[in-house]
Amino acid sequence: GENVEQHPSTLSVQEGDSAVIKCTYSDSASNYFPWYKQELGKRPQLIIDIRSNVGEKKDQRIAVTLNKTAKHFSLHITETQPEDSAVYFCAASRSSGYSTLTFGKGTMLLVSP
Amino acid sequence: GAVVSQHPSWVICKSGTSVKIECRSLDFQATTMFWYRQFPKQSLMLMATSNEGSKATYEQGVEKDKFLINHASLTLSTLTVTSAHPEDSSFYICSAPGGQGFIEQYFGPGTRLTVT
Description:
- The structure holds two protein chains of two kinds.
- By secondary structure, chain A is mostly beta strands.
- Helix content of chain A is 0%, strand content 54%.
- The radius of gyration of chain A is 13 Å and the shape is globular.
- Chain A starts with a strand and ends with a strand.
- The relative contact order of chain A is 0.34.
- The mean pLDDT of chain A is 94.
- Chain B is built from no helices and eleven strands.
- By secondary structure, chain B is an all-beta fold.
- The mean pLDDT of chain B is 94.
- Chains A and B meet through strand 5 and strand 10 of A and strand 5, strand 9 and strand 10 of B.
């Protein structure tokens, strides 16, 4: 089955700095890679996703890059703000109808004012 | 659109009792739903895939006789934790696939279970 590794487990940055979280996956058939933000006691919230037919996707301060050859993808947050503080999870799945998501172990991001 | 609800949002029960958690798709039909368990400071772990009108598919290591899943309609899946023990205390989250190609998953708000 799929295995998703995520690093770092914790990340502390100053407000305004950039943050980068990296994930690797093992199943070459995976082609859907979402990123979730989860605040304490709440549901995971999809913040951005990428499919394998593109190498990069950007949405305002958030971007995701994908390298299918190396089987890794990364989340980039620019101009971080204190409200970006949360746990971020990467995940991978095959986009073949009702495929299950495999999550990374999460990264706790702390943005200090 | 694509809203998933869960009930209850939190529950406290005594060891040895059973607890039922409901997961509903409010504005769309879901023939498949997923149940996850999340322990504190850990990731979401898939427990089982709930299939409308058929048996659920359980992940390795998840006891199907302890975690009973029923998907009786196109909008409702239930998870019953039977003979609960303190180690079953966790955050249980359901999700339903949707979007283009049913790739995205819409998550419920979760249910915090505490077994005393």
